[in-house]
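== Item description ==
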Amino acid sequence: MQNENYLIEKIKKGDHRAFKKLFDDYAPKLYRFLFQFSGQRDEVEDWVQGAFVNAYQNIASFRGESGFSTWLFRIGINLMKKSKRRNNFFDNISETTEIGDHCENPAEDFEWENKMKKYFSGIPELNKAVFILSIFEEYSHNEISVILGISPENSRIILFRTKKILRSKIESEINNEQY
């Protein structure tokens, strides 16, 4: 976090290399997260690029009350929501409640991605978002509340319920394989 604050101060003074460092650190995470809401690589790349452009253009307004990544994820989600609304795919994530070039082992990630898509099918978008942010991106419930515009308590409840649903789906699959 301290290094992050240092980089942000350098960016505010016009250091483009510092912004490149933040991009390199956070673009793969943001891409992985947003990819769970669209199977379209180009669309996700547009959202990630847009989030970083928006963050760069508004870096002077970043107050540091939360981490840069929390702010960036919020920007990315807002861009995704706006795009989805425009395309009539997605109303509002806070109400409704090929990981490709960014991965180290594409074969393993492809298998994991297919399993997760199967497990996530039928689960509301908000539940997916909370689960991914908490489990895979390791955000706290306070950070998730900022990113998604929900309360920390609601984040905890959603995570608990999502884990329960996923556990049930996985146990069901295991039981079906045994018979």
In short: Residues 152-178 form the longest helix (27 residues). DSSP finds eight helices and no strands in the chain. The CA atoms of residues 165 and 175 lie 15 Å apart.
